[in-house]
Amino acid sequence: MTEFSMLMGNINSQISTVNVSFEKLNDKVNGLLGKFPGFLSYLVKPLVAAWNKVVELSKKMWHEIDAYLQEPGDPGRLNDAGTNLSDKVQSPVSAQAGKFTETYMKVDDKWKGDAAEQYKKVLEPNAPQSSALRQYAATVAEVSKALNKCRWAIITFWIAVGTAYATLIGALMAAIIGVVSIVGAIPALLYAAGCIAAFVVAVIAAGAYAVSEMSDAASTFRTQNNGNDHLAGGKWPPSGVPES
């Protein structure tokens, strides 16, 4: 089991705990409010209405988060893709690009005359194939970094969600303990509602950060896809001496 799988398993467990705690709190509140005399119901109705609204919105929120849990992302595959690009593509291409020099190719040692001079031009840094190789290596490096950024955006988001759930569980437990009388129920419910709101804010903030990071990565993908100025017409340049 991967660390991310363990993280998601922990969050699923936290969600179950929150659901159970929330139902306990709801049952305790309804049981307490149900004991109020009928002639005092006008005092209870606003509290009941407010709490029912909190329950309704909270259940809707749990449902939406559950939908995200069905597709939490796969940081492991993103990491594998980025690592493979770096190790199996970028590194070999960079090494090959370093060979496009007259010193490495030993042109002066093996070849003399006009043909050798023309061949040297193919090996110049600004020659089409030399430029294309360097840009290809740079593009792969940037794409690998962008994939890694997506990976950490997903991990950071779910860590933040797990932390928010842990805080919420503690708040619900405290609220359950506090609902022992009408006098105690009001501050307990206000506290629970406030903590639920704080949970929502924390999740939204984590989501906004993840979206921002992934938007940056998507921008990198587009830039690298469209910015191959050394590949004329989007094709690998032909071998031979560049036109003067």
- The share of residues in helices is over 70%
Low-confidence stretches: none
Give the mean pLDDT: 80
One letter per element, helices H and strands E, the order comes to HHHHHHHH
Radius of gyration: 31 Å
Give the overall silhouette.
rod-shaped
Terminal Cα separation, in Å? 59 Å
Oligomer designation:
single chain
- The total count of strands amounts to 0
Counting H and I runs of at least 4 residues, what is the number of helices? Answer: 8
Q: What does the largest sheet look like?
A: none
Structural class: mainly alpha
Which strand-content bin applies to the residues? under 5%
Keywords: Membrane, Transmembrane, Transmembrane helix
Transmembrane segments: 155-183, 189-212
